[in-house]
Amino acid sequence: MLQRIRQVFSPTMLLYRILGMRIGSNTAMAVPDVSWPHQVSIGSGCILEKGISLKFDGIWKPGPSIVIGNHVFLGRDTEFNIRAGITVGSNSLIAGGCRFIDHDHGTSTHRLIRSQAGPESPIIIGEDVWLGADVIVLKGVVIHRGSVIAAGSVVTSDVPPGEIWAGIPARKISERSP
After folding, report:
1. Which domain holds residue 121?
2. How far apart are CA 11 and CA 108, in angstroms?
3. In this predicted model, what pLDDT tens digit does every residue of 66-81 receive, in sequence order?
4. pLDDT at residue 1, as a whole number
5. Taking 70 as the threshold, does the pLDDT of residue 137 lie above it?
6. N or C: which terminus of the chain carries fewer CB neighbours within 10 A?
7. How far apart are CA 25 and CA 170, in angstroms?
8. How many domains does the chain contain in total?
């Protein structure tokens, strides 16, 4: 653990902090790939494994747009591709390979797809949420407190509190027992 905590104080992490990235106390992390450091706020007591990408995919604006609460675990190779914003609630577990994408491209045939703006809407992950490996969460989704999303699922709609969802697209399969 001490080795991971030392990585927060690497020259790259120092530069990220100077550029406005907020990192809470006792957060252990490998150096993430960050496009706009001032768009990122990470709480206290978090663990971020290797290969994390925190991409704010827009022009400069005041931040943060990527807000990670306290005591959050982010597994290896997790990717945030954000324009509108994302909040990850405290005490949540995000397994490796998860993807968060809060925007689309336009699909008009009158212009190239790559040059079209598309809809965007923030993503909200509540507190005490568990996402299994390789989950994809799309724009506008709210995953409420205490929910579980099975590995490999694609979440396209809101998940009520305490439910367990799985599939493509993800659907309710169970509820957490008290």
Report:
1. 2-175
2. 45
3. 999 999 999 999 999 9
4. 44
5. yes
6. C
7. 35
8. 1
